[in-house]
Amino acid sequence: MIAVQSSLSQYLLVNHNLPQAITTYEKSTPSYQRAVTAFQAALPSIKTVDDLLNNRQALTVALGAFQLESQVDAKGLLKKLLTQDPSNSTSLVNQLNDPRYKQFAQAFGSLSTDGGAGINASGFADKIIASFGTNQFEESEGNQNPAVREALYFQRIAGQVTSVYQVLADPTIGDVVRTAQGLPAEAGALDVDQQVAQLKRSGFDVTKLTDPAFIAKYVQRYLVMNDLNNPSTDPTGGLAGLLAGSNGSGADNSSAVLGILGSASGGGISSGASGGILSLFA
How far is CA 137 from the centre of its chain? Predict the structure, then answer.
C-alpha cells in the first residue's frame, strides 16, 4: 500500500524552502506565465476603474494578488470599493472586516483619480505579480491538500490580524482558528457574538498572532487537528508515519505532536483530541 502524506508532512516539506518552491512553480506553470504576461500588457491601457473591471484577465490577476479572484464577477461590489472615499467611515471598504478588500482597494483605488499613474508606477506591477504568484502557488498546493493551502495562507496573513472580528471575517483564517481550537466547523454558522464568546472560552488570544513563533506552532497544531478530524485525508496513517522515528517507534514523536497541540492553543488540548492522537499508537 502506498502511504498517503499527512497534511503536516506536506506542509513541512513545502515550507522548508518556501521561496524556492514558489519560484519553481512560477517557472514551470504555463497558465501562471500567461496570466502575468496578459496583466503586464494590459496595465498601460488601464486608466480608469471601469478599464480594470472590464479587462477580465487583468482583473483576475489584480484580485488574485489578494486571494479575491472568486470576486471577479462582483463588479458592483468592486466598483464601490474602488470609487468610494476611503476616508469616509460609511464607505464600503470601511464596513468590511476582511482586510483583503481594504488591501485591494488601497492598491487599485488610485484609478478613480489619477488616470492610471499609480498602477503604472515603477515597482507596482512587480509587487502585484509577486503576490499573485504566491497565491497561485498556495492554490496549487491546495489542489493536493486544501489544509496545506490554508496553513500557508494563515502563516502569511495572520500577523496582520488584530481582532477576533477579522478572524471571523476571513473564511480561511476563521477555519484555521476553529480547527486549531478544537471547535466544530458548524460553529462558523453561529451569530458573530456567539462565535466571539466561543473562541474566548476555547482560550484563543488574538494578540498572540503578533508572534511569528506562535504562528509557526499554531499552524502545525491546525494541520494535526485537521487530519484527526478528517481521517479520509490521511487514510493510510500518514500522520502516524510522520510521528514514527527512524527506529520504527513513534513514542518520542507522539509526545512532540501532543506538545504541538498543547503549546499553541492558548489553552489545554481537549481530552477528546488527545485521545484521538494516542489512539494512533495503540
Answer: 12
